[in-house]
Write the C-alpha cells for this entry.
Amino acid sequence: MNTDQAAPLKESWWARLTQSKYFIYILISPLFLVLLAYVIYPFYQTFIQSVVGSEGAGIGNYKRFFSLESTANLEALWTSIYISVISVITCAIVGVTMAFLIERYEFPGRKILSILVLVPMALPPLVGVLSFTFLYGESGIIPRALQALFHLDSVPFSLKGITGVIVVHTFTMYTYFYLTASAAIKGLDPSLEEAATSLGSGRIRIWVKVILPMLTPAMVASALLVFMIAMASYTAPLMFGVERTMTMQIYLSRTNGNLDMAATQSTILSIVSIAFLIMMRWYQGRRNFQNQSKGISVHRTELRTPFMKYLSMLLSFIGVIILMLPILVLVLISFSVDGEWTIQIIPSAYTFDHYIALFTDERTWRPIWNSLQMSFVATIGNILFGVAAAYAMIRTRFKGKALLDILIMIPWALPGTVVAVNLIAAFSEPSVFSFNQVLIGTFWILPLAYFVRHLPLIFRSTSAALMQMDQSVEEAARSLGANWWYTFRRVVVPMAFSGILAGTLLAMVQGLGEFVASILIYSTSTMPLSVAIFQKMYAFQFGTACAYGVLQILLIIFVLFISQKLTNGKAGAVI
Amino acid sequence: MKSVRLDHVSKMFGTAKGVEHVAIDVKPGEFFTFLGPSGCGKTTTLRMIAGFYYPTKGKIFFDNRDVTTLQPNKRNIGMVFQNYALFPHMTVFENIAFGLEVRKLSKSVIKEKVERAQKLVYLDKYGTRKINELSGGQQQRVALARALVIEPDILLLDEPLSNLDAKLREETRLEIKRLQVELGVTTIYVTHDQTEAMTMSDRIMVMKEGVVQQIGTPQEIYNRPANHFVASFIGESNMLEGEVMEISGSTVKVKVDSDLQVEGVLDTAINKIKVEVGKSVKLSIRPEAIFEGQGPNQLHGTIQLVEFTGVSINYLVQVGSATLKVMIINKGNQILKRGDSISLYVPEKGVYFINE
C-alpha cells in the first residue's frame, strides 16, 4: 500500500502541470512562436515599411499606388487581375474538357493521355516557361519550322507578352481543374443520371440539373486556387517581358531601390491573396456533395462511328505531342553545344558534356549542391513543424485552432515574391527571431524562405494521414502502459509515415526548384539551382540550363511516383 | 485483481452533462457490466476508469489508491476497444508484445508470455501475420490477448462484440467469460445488448441519459426492475397503469379498466413505493408470467396477432382497453388463431409494481 501511495506524491507537481487543461497551450506555443517569427513578423515589418517609409509616417505610399496621375501601379494591378481571370477561364475549359473526355469516353489513346495529362505538374515553373520560349517564342522551334516549311518572310506566330503568359498559365495550371473535376466526375454516381433519365428528363436537363450542380463545388474551389496562383505568377511575366503585373512591379521597385513602394505593393498583393485564401477555406467548409453510394462503377461511352474514332485518335495524338513537347525540347537542347544554336530551327551540334559537367565541374555542380543543402535544411524544419502542427491540429483541443490553421496556410497563399520582400524587411536588421543576426546575404535566408513557402506541405500530408488513423489506436497504446512519447514514436509516426514521407519528398523537390523567392534574396556564394538556370539562360548557355532543368524534372517525376505509391494514388490531395 | 470504486463521479462536457453521480463498488474478480442505450454515459464512465477522461467531480479508487487523475499508462489496465484498435503496422506477435515491451521485460520473457497468450486465444500459429490478414473474430482475439498479457489489475471491455456477426458473437461471448473466470481478473464490460449483460455479468449497472437507474445482479434487474425504463429495456414487459382499489396486508388490488383487474404482492422492503387507495399506480407483467387457463387474476381476451418462434408461441391479446404480450412455452399445444378468445391468468408474483 505504501509504495502505491508514494507514487502520486512524487510526481504531483509534474502531474498537476501536465494534467492542467492549460498544459496544451505550453505545448503548442512553439508552433505559434515560429509562425509569429517567420510569417507574421516579416509581414508586419513590410507593412510598417510601407506606412512609415523614408518620408515620414502616413498612407502616402498607398495614395501614390492608387493615384490616377501615374497609373503604372493601377495598370499592374489591373493586368494581374485580367491575366488571372483569363487564366481561370482557359484552365477551366481545358481542364474540365480533358477530365470529361478521359473519365467518360473510351477512345484509342485514352490510357496514355490519362497519364500524360499530368505532365505539366512535373515542370518546375522556371523550366516550364523556359521550354515554352524555346518552343513557341519568337525564335522558337515551332514558329521557325513553320516559316521554313511554308517559305514565309517572317515567323507566322510566336508567343509573347500577355498572350504568352496566359498560354503558359493554361498549360501549367489546367491540372488543378483537371484533378478536381476528374475526382468529382469519378465520384458522380452514374445511377443518379440513370435515375434522372428514368424520371423522364432529357440529356440537357440532366446536365443542367444534375451534373453541373454536382461539379460546381469542385469548380469554384479550383477557380479560386488558379486565380490565386496566377496572381502570384512571376516567372511567366518575367520571361515574356510583361512588366506591368504586381509581382514584376515589386521586383522592379526593389531593383530600382524604391523599397517603400515595393513594400506597399507587397502589402496590397498579400491582402488580395489572403482574401482569396479565406474565401477558399470558407467555401471548402461548405462544399460537401459527397456521394452516398459506395462502389461506383464507371461506364465509359464508346465512340462507335469510324469517323469519330479516327478523329479522336488524331486529337489524342496531338494532345500527347503538345504535352510531351516541352520535356522533349528540354532534353534535346540539353545535349546541344552551347553557343552553336543561333538561327537554325533546331540545334546543329550535340554533346554529352553538360551532363558530365553537372557532376564533375565544380562550378556547375556548386548550385546543385547549394540547393540540395538549403532544401535539406528547410525540409528538416518543415518536418519538425509540420508533424507537430498536424498532430496538434488533429489530435488535441485548444482555443485558436482556426487561427493556427489559417496562419499555416497563409505562406502557401502568399506569392513567393512577397515572401522574399517580407523576409528582407524583417531580417536585414538583427532581430530576436534571427538570434540577433542579419540573415540577408547569409546562407540561412534561403532555407528560411523555403521553410516558410513550403510550410503547409508536410502539415497537410501528415494531417491527412492522421485523420485516417483511428484515435483509439493511440488510446490502446496508452492503456497498455506506453507514455505519450513512446506512443508517438512507436504508433503515431509509423502509422502516419507514408503521409509524412510524401510531404517531405514534395517539400524537398519544391525547395530544389524554388525560383521566385530565391531570385530576390540569393547571394552569389549560395546561388541556388534555379537562379543558376536563369543566369545560364541569359549567358546563352542553353545546353547547361536545360541539363539542369532535365535533372529537376527527373527528380520531380521520381518524387511524384514515390508519393503516388505511398498514398495509393491520392497524391492529388498532397499537392 | 483489484477492486474499483467510483465515489459519486460526474463528468461534464462543457455545459453538456455526460454522467452524473455514479457510485459503484466493483469487487475484486467481479464481472461488472454497464448496460444502456447509446448516449447513456456508459462509455464515458468506462473511459474515466481507463483514464482517458478525468471526472469533473468525484473520485476513482483502485483498491485504496486514488487514481482519479492518474495517467492511463500508469493504471495497469487492459482495455479492449470496440474497433479493437490494433496496430496495423505490426504483426500479431508485435501487437501482443507491445505492452510487455513498454514494461521493459527481457526478450525471452516477452516471447514466452506472448506465446502463452496466443495459445490462450487459439492464435498460436498466427504470430507473424499482419493485422489486415486476420478475420474479425481473430482480430478480436488478438485485442483480448494484448489486453490480458500484461496481467492487468482491471480488464475494461468497450462493446467488444458489436463488430462481430451473430454466430461469432455468441462464441466470443463464451470465450471472454471463460478467460475471465479462469484468470479471475476484475472486469468492467460495456454493452447495449441485454443478452450479453444478462448472460455474462455478476452484476449490472443500468444507465440512461447519464443517470444510474439500477445496480444489481441479472436476476434482480430482471425480476425487480427499479423503474419503467429498466423494466422495458431489459426483456419484454407489459406496462399497465391503474387505480388502487384495495390494500389488504401486502396484497394490492388494481383496476386498469373494468375488464382488467389484477392483484399483486407488494414487498415494500425491496420496492420502495407508496400505494394509497384511490391513487394511480404503475405495474409491469412479463409476457412469460401470463399463463393460459384458469387461475388467480383471471383475464379474458381476444387474440390479435400470433407469432411462432419455435421455443414459444407469442400472442398479442386484447384485454379490455389494454393489449398484452403473452408468451406461452411451446409444449406442442394447439396454436390459436387471430380472433379466437383466450383465457389467461397471472400468478400474484408475476405482478410487479414499479416507480415512474
Summary: The radius of gyration of chain A is 26 Å. Residues 1-10, 291-295, 570-575 of chain A have pLDDT under 50 and may be disordered. The interface with chain B takes residues 1, 4-5, 7-8, 15, 18-19, 470, 472-473, 475-483, 486, 490-491, 494-495, 497 of chain A (CB under 8 Å). The longest strand of chain A covers residues 105-106.
